[in-house]
Design brief:
This protein is mainly alpha-helical. It has seven helices and no strands.
């Protein structure tokens, strides 16, 4: 397997360390955004690979988090239920649209990951702490559900 959930978790740890130790430093927020988006991508691709998607299929999707989320939602549990429940997982409590589904679906309206986050002069994205929390929720959900889902 090419994609590894443990790698996604190490990205989360690195982003959390930056928030804890360097949040006030220049470009810290951009770094947390990048690591968090990358963690979401790796977590989703690891789950999709586990359920039967080929490396070449996943590479074609590139970094489009909204497309990866759609593919995960198309997977099924043994009872036939679609895996769309990931979309409703809360990321930003006490907000109307603070779910994994809203955040990952709307990343196409933000600075394009990874290019505009890495190289853009004006990053338009969710708050770094919210994206880090999204990465944590996505990783946890993928870890818990990867063994029971099928393509």
């Amino acid at each position: 397997m090419i994609y590894n959930i443990e790698f996604a978790n190490r990205l989360i740890e690195a982003a959390a360390a930056i928030i804890a130790d360097s949040h006030d430093k220049q470009e810290a927020g951009r770094t947390v955004l990048y690591l968090s988006c990358l963690s979401c991508e790796i977590s989703l691709k690891a789950l999709l690979e586990q359920v039967g998607y080929e490396e070449i299929e996943l590479k074609k999707i590139s970094h489009r988090l909204d497309e990866l989320l759609k593919l995960v939602g198309d997977c099924e549990f043994p009872n036939g239920q679609k895996a769309t429940a990931i979309r409703s997982k809360m990321v930003v409590p006490e907000t109307q649209n603070g779910t994994v589904g809203t955040i990952l679906s709307k990343t196409s309206e933000c600075s394009v990951y990874p290019n505009e986050i890495r190289y853009g002069s004006n990053v338009r994205h969710y708050h770094p702490k919210d994206m880090l929390n999204c990465a944590k929720v996505v990783s946890q959900w993928c870890t818990v559900n990867s063994q029971q889902l099928k393509r």
